[in-house]
Structure formats: structure tokens, C-alpha cells
Amino acid sequence: MDTRRWRIYFDGRTEASLRDDPMIQEAATMLRTGKLVAFPTETVYGLGANAADETAVQSIFTAKGRPADNPLIVHFADEAAAIGWILEMPENGHRLASAFWPGPLTLIVEHLGTLAPAVTAGLPTVGVRVPAHPIAQALLSQARVPVAAPSANRSGKPSPTQAEHVWKDLNGRIHGLIDGGHSGVGVESTVVDVTGPVPLLLRPGGVTLEQMRQVVGSVAVDPGLQGVAIPRSPGVKYRHYAPQGEMWVVIGNGEALVKKMQSMADDGRARGYTVGILTTEEHRNRYRADYVLTCGSRSNPASVARYLFDTLRRFDELGVEWIIAEGFEEEGLFDSVMNRLSKAAEGQVIDLGEGDI
Asked: What is its biological role (predicted)?
């Protein structure tokens, strides 16, 4: 199929001013009529389909090559729009939604059974969220249907934070792509189950555990966060975010970190691999490899989250076969970064302990 691509420059434009844009109107009509449209959110680009249309939803799985037992997040223009599709919004859900919607937070709630069965993968619950990106808000407002939207990439590949990533993965496999520039947060939304008395974190993301605890007090962490038999949330079962080359993550500090990573890089080169090192601004001049790429600064976790997936995709473009990546202590936004790095490396993580400061 031919993929329609719209470029929307929205600097200074509000969601209200974007609603009447002919490109938004055309994309919204596509969604209502069962077609696939990729669009920017504040986290990553999403691949949207009418969540009440089973045929449309099934086409998401086909386009992405996504396993059918992996549930989808449903996006709404606001909390009121979500109410008609869920059993209820629990009190903790209301409090979190009031604090973080629109924004990078997905709430797991019970649904009414009116969504397409493929959305929920047979579960009694569904993930719902209200994205903050003005293009996403305008599109959802004009589409006037619930929109199921996983990340707009081929399954298993790094999530797309630029329209060009989507184009390379899905051109010819979807009906439309709204190019709205670089997404903001860079990692997907936080996913929290609010069906029980204590909210349960299922996937770390753009809203941190510490931020949520400031709003609702106690938030538990799912012990199955690194993999469960039946996924209650996207991103907790299958290999995700992975570059093509073999990848290792090393957690440490100072000279101990640099020495270990350089040793592993040297070993890879001795074995004939094209070697890449994923580092931060603080250590960018400390390594020798075929390619040394940075994804932000340790002093600015948001910068690392924003450019992580871009950098992983860059390694693929360069044909890197052996990747050694710096890891981080799992707190704040770095918890979300480490979740993605660990999955990208398929759990190949080396923790050096305290090391040198």
C-alpha cells in the first residue's frame, strides 16, 4: 500500500488550533474508517487504529509483526472520553490522572468488553492514557474513537522517536504517518495497574515511581517486571528495543566502568566484530572502538531517555555487531532507561558494584 505522509510544524500552535488542520482532519478520517495512522506522542511515535474495530486492530499486529497475546494501550483525548469504555476509574486512578494527564502515564483498569478483543488479548483489563503531544491531542479529538496505539516500529526494534524511524520500519505497511518532529520524553509511558487497593507499577516510563508516590503514597512494584507468563502490560514479555548487534550493559562508576567497557570492546574487536560503545558526555573521550556514540549526560537523565532509542538505531545504521553500553543506577528516570537497556541486551547486564567514584 502507499503510505501517506503529512509534515506538521506545530511550534507555538495549540491543540485547539491544530484540530482544523486539513492534514489532521484527513488522518482522523483514516482512523475512523479502519486505517492505520502513525503519529507523534510526547513519548515515542504510536501506530494508531480504531480500538473498537477488530479488523483495524488486527492490522496493527500484522504491520508490526507483533505477537497477538501482547495487549495494546488505548489513547483518548481526555479522561472523560475514556469513561465510556471502562468499568470505572478507581480513586487512585483519578488522582494519578489528575496529576499526570495529559502525559506519559498509562493506567490499567477494567474494561466494559466493548473494545476489539485483540486490544486486550483476552484480559479483563485495558491500559488507557491521554497523551500530552498537541498533534496527538488534536488527532484524538477529531477522530472521536478510542485509538489503540503501540509504538510505531517493527516488533522488537528500538522504538521510534522520529518520523524517519517510522518511515524506515513501516512505509508501505500502514496508511498514514504524521511527521511532527522528534518526540519529547523518548521512552514509553509508565504503566500502572490501579485495579487493586495499592497501585502496581508494571512498566517504568516517563513518570517516575517517586513522582507517583508523592501523589498516592504507596506504589508497589510488580515482581514480574522483567518478564511474566501472561503480560498485563505492553513491554513486559517479549524482546524489545533491541538493535541488530549483540549488546551488553555495564553498570559502574569512574575508572572501574571505563576499564571494564574498554576491555569488553577490545575483546569484541579481537574476535573480528565491528564494535560500538554507547556512553554519556562525561566519558565520551575515554573509549576506543569502531564507533563511540553518546546519548546524553549522566547529570541530565531526561537527555539520556530522549536520545536512547535514536542511538540504538544509529548502531544498526552503522552495521555495529557488538555493542557495549553504559548502565545506570535504577532510580528516577534512569529506572526507565535501565528497563529498556536490559531488554535491548536481553538481560546481559554486568553490575560492577560501587567501583571508583
From this structure: Required for the formation of a threonylcarbamoyl group on adenosine at position 37 (t(6)A37) in tRNAs that read codons beginning with adenine.
